[in-house]
Amino acid sequence: MSFTVAIIGRPNVGKSTLFNRLVGKRLALVDDTPGVTRDRREGDARIGSLKFKVIDTAGLEEAFDDSLEGRMRRQTEMALEEADVALMLFDARAGITPLDSHFANWLRKSDVPVILVANKCEGKQAESELFPAYKLGLGDPLPLSAEHGDGMGELFDALLPYEREIEPEIAAKDRPLALAIVGRPNAGKSTLVNKIIGEERLLTGPEAGVTRDAISVEWEFDGQKIKLVDTAGIRRRARVQQKLEKLSVADSLRVIKMAEVVVLVVDADVSFEKQDLTIAAHVIEEGRGLVVAVNKWDVVKDRQAMLKQIREKLEISLPQVRGVPVVTLSALTGRGLEKLLPQVIEVYRLWNKRISTSQLNRWLEHMLEKHPPPMAKGRRLKIRYMTQVKSRPPTFSLFMSSRGELPESYIRYLINGLREDFNMPAVPIRISPRTGK
Ligand code: GDP
Ligand code: GDP
């Protein structure tokens, strides 16, 4: 499944007909969650070799009880949240109605690219109807007949670029986990990297399974491909005996951006300082998974006190990601090293986690009951529902039905709840409230 297409448009333009044509018998899922998501249909679609996920919004109107515009807007909003591209259908026989125009005006402001589709165009008879469609400001209309199948080749061409664009993002399964090892100079990064790769070589035989070039190393651990990105240690060994460059914050930020999970190496001998926390905070801001490796454990005298101190500093300074794994080890002797990669893979798994809309909303209902949202301007803030819009890291949209800001503290309540109830320590979790107005 490479990308997601939402079919949108006013009632009766042929959305369901198109959905059925695209999905055929492959209808994968009819979400039967009570409430708003009831009539949403998603399926695995195919045109020729092009495979994608399609979301149909038809029928969703009934879930709301206010104006048609309001209902359409909300149903569309939900679909757009997940879509990489939208097909806006209009009925070429009926021409452009005020409702189409109204809708297009609003749609033009969305970030999601829109392909305008003139439906019911079988046998070319309605082509003269297409001129007025330009005034919608959504580009050239693509003539199609959902019922008869005309124009599917053109639709294929129009959608193809989205597959290409999205593919590298989505083909996550076979892609190696991008791992960065960062930390202050002298923390032991290069020793650690060489130890990890050295151990791997012992396990897999000389050079087998390990490829390395100037700036990256790739190997497999426990069935998971791992790629070490832009590691200072590797580069330094490549240049002969160069002076230690200071790892500036800008440097580590650049490396963090290239990674999915980051191991922050801290020097137990120097204790856990502000610069370490700054790097850790960057990892979280960038939405990466974090594992802290406390190195040089061999020279630590009071181990318990040291560990306690590090955990406390992390909890206080990074309350956004409770439960960051802390692994103590000695890169020099290799002691404790075996705990590191399993933690990295676990964090990666959480970072990729997806929670279904029905599960989320059952959970949300419970959370709202336990602790209702506060009042704003004399009215209770109303949360309609929630969906996970993406993973890597887990990101959620919270749909509000009334105006008014949801306080930060309430969002934190939900984030902490998600972290706890769905067991997601150590990865950033994001929630953005939206008002359907
Ligand atoms: P939705 O409300 O947007 O999902 O629209 P439907 O898919 O239910 O279609 C509304 C009506 O338009 C139905 O009677 C369909 O049979 C008809 N229809 C859909 N696609 C075409 C088409 O390509 N050509 C013609 N002539 N009618 C179509
Ligand atoms: P980098 O600048 O972060 O890449 O750090 P290096 O890997 O170059 O290590 C800096 C110094 O710390 C070197 O002298 C290493 O031998 C030493 N070192 C690295 N790991 C350990 C360890 O686990 N224990 C001890 N005692 N020393 C270590």
Automatic annotation (TrEMBL):
It comes from the Bacteria. PROSITE patterns: G_ENGA. Keywords: GTP-binding, Nucleotide-binding, Repeat, Ribosome biogenesis. Residues 3-167, 177-352 form the EngA-type G domain. GTP 2 binds at residues 183-190, 230-234, 295-298. GTP 1 binds at residues 9-16, 56-60, 119-122. GTPase that plays an essential role in the late steps of ribosome biogenesis. Associates with the 50S ribosomal subunit. This is GTPase Der. It comes from Sneathiella chinensis. The lineage of its organism: Bacteria, Pseudomonadati, Pseudomonadota, Alphaproteobacteria, Sneathiellales. The gene is der.
